[in-house]
Amino acid sequence: MKLNIVCIPGDGIGPEIVSEAKKVLNKIAGVYGHEMNFQDVLMGGASIDAYGVPLTEETIAAAKAADAVLMGSIGGNTVTSPWYKLPPDKRPEAGLLGIRKALNLFANLRPAVLYEELADACPLKKEISSAGFDMMIMRELTGGLYFGERHTTQENGIRKAVDTLTYDENEIRRIAIKGFDIAMKRRKKVTSVDKANVLDSSRLWRKVVDEVAADYPEVSLEHMLVDNCAMQLVKDPAQFDVILTENMFGDILSDEASMVTGSIGMLASASLNDSKFGLYEPSHGSAPDIAGKGIANPIATILSAAMMLRYSFDLDREADAVEAAVKEILKKGYRTVDIMSEGCTQVSCGEMGDLLADEIR
Ligand code: IPM
Ligand code: MG
Questions:
Q1: Do 124 and 114 touch, CB atoms closer than 8 A?
Q2: Closest ligand 1 atom, residue 269 Cα
Q3: What residue owns the CA closest to ligand 1's atom 8?
Q4: Which ligand 1 atom is nearest residue 247's CA?
Q5: Per residue in 188-233, pLDDT tens?
Q6: 116: confidence class by pLDDT, cuts 50, 70, 90
């Protein structure tokens, strides 16, 4: 297969981890006979420094023309970086929100998996973590509070800020369908998370999810309130297969779920549109404090590249090979510093990339 991949290395540790993911993809290309072309483009802080804006039309056009996009991370230290002196719509994060919208990436998949080899990193009690867990958070990514009308005003000397949470049934239906489709390939359970005891948007969410569920008789559906879900994630994470939820709830719950694994440096994500196109990025941020030190964990980005092979290119065998390499290297005891534990061998970002690429034969 001939694949054109646009890479957004981004800010902080982004460039280091993306370059390790390319190493692994190049190895996959060699072993399985594919041709992969990479084109690097700027976004976020790097784009602000070069062009004064976090996202350019050129970057959007390059991404649209590509078969998929692989991203590192964007953003800097929100207290010390000059990027955060700019107005909100000129900051690095605006680039990320802008590209999600421009490419219509409404379905965000965030797996949270407890790896057997890293079970000790899980901050939960043994009696909870011993059951293991493997869930997929499906977050709606282009609607809700993030993209609703917002403004800040002053009335009679009182400052007032407004954000609006809007969903129409089509926006809910398309993410629900993706959620059920993915559940069919997994353990066939969907937990739809909302705040239907308070919000109208959540009551509509529930109705539409019920309608979609009627087309998936094999999938069991339950509805859960978001505050309860936040508790259940730490009480009994093994109960979850697919968690289907709106943008803001998904933002918060996916961070919670990743923390519960204890190894956020391992968690991948995919953001998909209606077709096979997607943007793939690690679930973690740009970690400006460790940027350039060569100690970042590239595995989340490498596993995001595996998701790209699976979801955008239908290359399941190749994706399996990358995921198997990760498991094998963990089993052999190699760790970057963030997941280091006694008796293991600590390696750098680059060494981890080399080890994983070597493991694919
Ligand atoms: C994420 C991030 C973004 C979000 C920020 C950086 C705008 O937290 O991808 O979860 O809130 O969506
Ligand atoms: Mg977030």
A1: no
A2: 9
A3: 251
A4: 12
A5: 999 999 999 999 999 999 999 999 999 999 999 999 999 999 999 9
A6: confident
